[in-house]
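Lecture 7 notes: from sequence to structure.
We start with the chain below.
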Amino acid sequence: MVNFNGKIHSNDIDYLNHGNRGLLYGDALFESLRVVNDHIYFLEDHYLRLMASMRILRMEIPMDFTMEFMEQEILRAIGTSEAKGAFRIRFTVFRNNGGMYTPETNNVSYIIEARELRENFYVLKEGPYEVELFKDFYIHKSMLSNLKTNNRILNVVGSIFAKENDYGNCLLLNDEKNVVEALNGNLFMVSGLEIRTPPLSDGCLDGVLRKNLLNIISKSDNYHLVEASISPFELQKADELFITNAISGIIPITKYRKKEYTKTVSQSLIGKLNMAVRITI
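Predicted structure tokens for the same chain:
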């Protein structure tokens, strides 16, 4: 089902038009959220990131756009009275129609799409998961790169490259040729007792799962957490690489070029992540 400005529609209905600014200019933001048995994972983090992003893009935030309102509208989209299980939610906010590059209004509308997921909790992917660098285009080091906007053309072209070459994913570089993130999530690298992830200043997405995993790792006595740039040369020296996003949780990388990786840290962290989610229920 689809929730468009509070009205519920079926998935096959046409409710957008040629003047939509998200379509015309990518003038939109979105959040990908996981909902299990009516519980929205990391709701507060998603809400605060969305509000901060709207302010940065100078969108007008409606007075009733509270966290409770966001929760209510998401649950309406999945049919909270009957539907149970796991859902993937895409909550999109876009500036209303009018104007060209300069909008006629900063008022916004929203769309909430709900799709069922197979698993009720985070699980590690089985089987091989090989990655490669995507070097056709680069991420620019700026605050806009930290936002989850509808401008995802680099990710689209990179995903096509990955599919054409039978890779599970690709790693993206910034304009200084440092590894920033994967096509669909943040990147973590394990070397001995050090777990490193690129800083936001390198241009990576300010991921909700990234934030929560940083908090989990920082409380561990077993590993040393570092937010620092990662060069492509360091990838083949690492013991482990994994990708994180709010829908899949942790995705272990098994191979990059001739280097194969373990899943030891991923297996340890997925349990802690699921435990952290249960505590918030």
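Points to note: Residues 264-280 form the longest helix (17 residues). The helical segments are 21-25, 43-56, 67-78, 143-146, 153-164, 208-218, 232-235, 264-280.
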